[in-house]
Amino acid sequence: MRAFPSVCLATCVALLPACATADPSTNQATSLVEQRSGLTANVASKLWDWAEVGYQETKSSGLLQDTLAGEGFDVEAGVAGIPTAFVAEYGSGEPVIAILAEFDALPGINQSSAPTRDPVEGKHAGQACGHNLFGAGSVSAAIAVRHWLESTGTEGTIRVYGTPAEEGGSGKVYMTRAGLFDDVDIAMHWHPDDQNSAAANTSLANRSAKFRFNGISAHAAGAPERGRSALDGVEAFNMMANMMHEHMPQDARMHYVITAGGNAPNVVPDFAEVFYYVRHPEADGVDEIWARLEKAAEGAAMGTGTTVDWEVIHGNNPLLVNETLARMMDRKLREMGGISYTAEEQAYAEQIAASFDKPDLSLGSQEEIQPFEISLGYGSTDVGDVSWAVPTVGLRTATWVPGTSAHSWQAVAASGMSIGHKGAQLAAETLTAAAIELYQNEDLIESAWTEFEDKRGPDYEYKSLLGDRDPPLDYRK
C-alpha cells in the first residue's frame, strides 16, 4: 500500500456543470479510441455471439488476451486459480493504473439483436448485462492508453484485469484475495446501462449459497410413509425465509430459485436444491441475516425428516465510493458528452421502447449526462472487493435504449448492435481520458488515497464474504 501525505478534501454533492472547454486529455483520448472503433465493435460482437457463462468463458477470455498480446502487453493467464482470469500489462514504473474487464454472460436468457422479442433457438445464455461491451470497451481503452504512454514517453504502467464470472461467481474477489491489486495505484471500471453517469453509487454486499436437502425416495402412492421428501425440506425452508422478509432491514434483499426439485411426481424426491442470495448495504448486515437463514434451513430439515448442507458460492463486499475520483470521472464524462443515434438507430430504439411499461428514462436521454450524486444502489458487484483494496472509480454509459432494465431481453438485443457499441466507445474514451489525467496528476492520486485510507480506517482488515473457499469453477454447469 502506498503512503501519501495528508491533504484536505472538500466534498459536496452539488451538480457539476458540463465543461465548456475540454481538457487536452479528453481530445487525446477521443482521437486514440476513435481509431479503434472497429476493434471495439468486433470484439464486442464476438463475445456477444459466444455468450459464455461464468468460469467457462474460454474463447472470450482468449480473445481479450490475444488482442492485448498483439498490442505488446505482457499477459499472465490463469491467475488466482481461475483458468479464464488474466492480467495484462504494458509499461513500467508508477503509477500503476488498472482497468477491469468483464466478459461473462447470463444463463437462462437469450435474444437476437432484433428490437422485438426473438429468442435464439438452442442458445442458453445471453449478454443481458452487457459484459461483452464491458470487456471490449476496457480493452480498447487500455490499448489507447498504451499508445499514449509510448508516444509521450510517460512513465507508468497500464494493466488490464480480465475478471470472469461477475454474475454470481465473484471472480474479482478471488483476485483481490490473491493480492493481485496490492501494487495498484488506481483501479477503474465501467458498466453498460441505459444512461450516462459517473455518479458515486454504492452497492449492496451480498452472499449466495446452494442449500442441498437430502431425503429418502419412495413410491409416492404405494409407500409414501417410507419417503422423506427433500423437496418438502426446500419448500418449508422457502416458507420460513419468506416470513423473514417482514423482519429484515428495509434496504436488505433476499431472493432464491429452486435449482432441483425432483423428476417425477410419483417419486418422493431424495434430493432438492435451492439457490439463495442475501444482500445488505453492509457486510455485517449480510452476516446477521445469513445466520438466521442457516437456522431456517436447519429447522426445515428437522421438520421434514431430511438433512441439509450448503455451499457458499459467492460473496461481495459493498462498493467503497471514492468521491475524489468520482468527481474527476464525472468531469471527463461531461467533456465527452452523450450518445447520438442515427435515423436507423432511432427507429430501432423506438421499437425497443414500445415494449416498456412506465420506463424511468425516455428516448433522448442517451444524449445527456445524468446529475452527479452520492447514493445507494441495490445491485451487487465483485468490484466492491477491489474498491476496499485500492481506490476505485467507475462510470456507466448508455449502451442500451433508455428505459431498459439490466438482465432483460432488451439489454441482450442492444448489446449486440451499434447502440451498444457506441456506449462501449464512450466508456473507452472516458476511461482513457481519466487514465491520462491520473498519469499527469500525482496530486489527484494522493488525494484519492487520503480519502480511501480515511474511509477504511486505521484498523481495517480485509474480510472476504465467501471465506477461504476455492473458486467454484463448475457453478454454472
TrEMBL record:
Hydrolase as UniProt keyword: yes
UniProt keywords, alphabetically: Hydrolase, Signal
Alphabetical list of InterPro entries matching this protein: Amidohydrolase, Aminobenzoyl-glu_utiliz_pB, Bact_exopeptidase_dim_dom, Peptidase_M20, Peptidase_M20/M20A_hydrolases, Peptidase_M20_dimer
A GO CC term attached to the entry: cytoplasm
Signal peptide: 1-22
A GO BP annotation: folic acid catabolic process
Entry annotated with the keyword Signal: yes
GO molecular function, one term: para-aminobenzoyl-glutamate hydrolase activity
Protein name: Amidohydrolase
Species: Henriciella mobilis
